[in-house]
Design a protein that fits this description.
Layout lengths: L1 H21 L19 H12 L7 E5 L5 H10 L2 E6 L2 H9 L5 E5 L12 E7 L8 H11 E12 L7 H8 L1 H10 L10 H11 L2 E8 L3 H7 L1 H12 L4 H12 L1 H4 L2 H5 L5 E7 L3
Parallel strand pairs: 1-2, 1-4, 2-3, 4-5
Antiparallel strand pairs: 5-7, 6-7
């Protein structure tokens, strides 16, 4: 009965996630470098900064789990001259990524628990906002570990339930209907969401060394990304179509003040999400 229950959970979870992300409109690939794409959020900036800290080297193989239409892999390849493999559950997104025909990137529509990759074939694996969408994230982490070479690096980002003091916690308490609608729209089920210790445990149990956990999404950065301030910039750059380089070269430096306002909270361990990272022993 336990196996049946797990199987049903996995099928229902994958069907729900696929329905959500098949509906996303594929984005164009403009040859941008990492951190230069058409994205105004501080989350995008933070993800790019964390990926850069993995120090991708030319010729290394990067796995992007939850790659969608491949834009992040295209940016990484443009900046670091790496080889890349993108995996996503959305067949529509994978088709769009393949249509771009990048010579150093491959894309697969597959389950995160059964990656179509040989053992020890990847140097870097990233899973940004992916593990919380899977039925068995611990199995997914073990599968990623299988694909990584000795010395390989892994980075994930995901929301967590132990988020007291964060804007996420405040919204869930004071605007529950709005909050529930928002998180369900992106495929989040807080009944299955982990806490930070569980996320760390997935990597440690899979055999990763040097596991590190850092908080994110405390308060002000979250307000900037998803509420009123960001809508003004969306109008300027996506409706009025000001050059995106103007944002990245000039305005982005000012917007990061919103992130700096969160640093005291982050240092106290306040945050609605975490980055968790580790490496495979050499």
């Amino acid at each position: 009965m336990r196996l049946l229950a797990d199987g049903v959970l996995e099928r229902e979870t994958e069907a729900w996630q696929k329905e959500i992300y098949d509906a996303y409109a594929p984005q164009r690939h403009g040859g941008w470098g990492l951190g230069r794409g058409p994205d105004l959020t501080l989350t995008y900036w933070s993800h790019c900064r964390r990926i850069a800290a993995l120090a991708p080297a030319a010729g290394e193989v990067v796995l992007d789990l939850g790659a969608l239409d491949g834009r992040r892999l295209f940016e990484i390849a443009a900046t670091y001259d790496v080889l890349g493999v993108g995996v996503d559950l959305s067949t529509r997104a994978v088709h769009a990524a393949r249509e771009a025909r990048h010579p150093r990137l491959r894309f697969h529509a597959a389950s995160a628990e059964a990656l179509p990759l040989p053992h020890a074939s990847v140097d870097i694996a990233i899973a940004m906002d992916v593990l919380e969408h899977t039925a068995h994230p611990d199995r997914v982490v073990r599968e990623i570990r299988r694909c990584l070479k000795p010395g390989g690096r892994f980075l994930a980002h995901l929301p967590v339930t132990d988020n007291a003091g964060s804007l996420d916690a405040w919204m869930a308490e004071h605007r529950p209907a709005f909050w529930t609608e928002r998180v369900r729209a992106v495929g989040h089920d807080y009944a299955r969401m982990p806490n930070a210790a569980a996320a760390r445990g997935w990597l440690e149990d899979a055999g990763f060394a040097g596991v590190r956990l850092d908080r994110f999404n405390a308060w002000h950065q979250n307000r900037f990304d998803y509420y009123a301030v960001h809508r003004v910039l969306n109008t300027l750059f996506f409706v009025w179509q000001l050059p995106m380089r103007l944002y990245h070269d000039l305005l982005a430096h000012a917007t990061r003040l919103w992130y700096l306002l969160d640093v005291p909270r982050l240092r106290r361990g306040v945050g609605g999400s975490v980055y968790v990272s580790g490496r495979v022993p050499a």
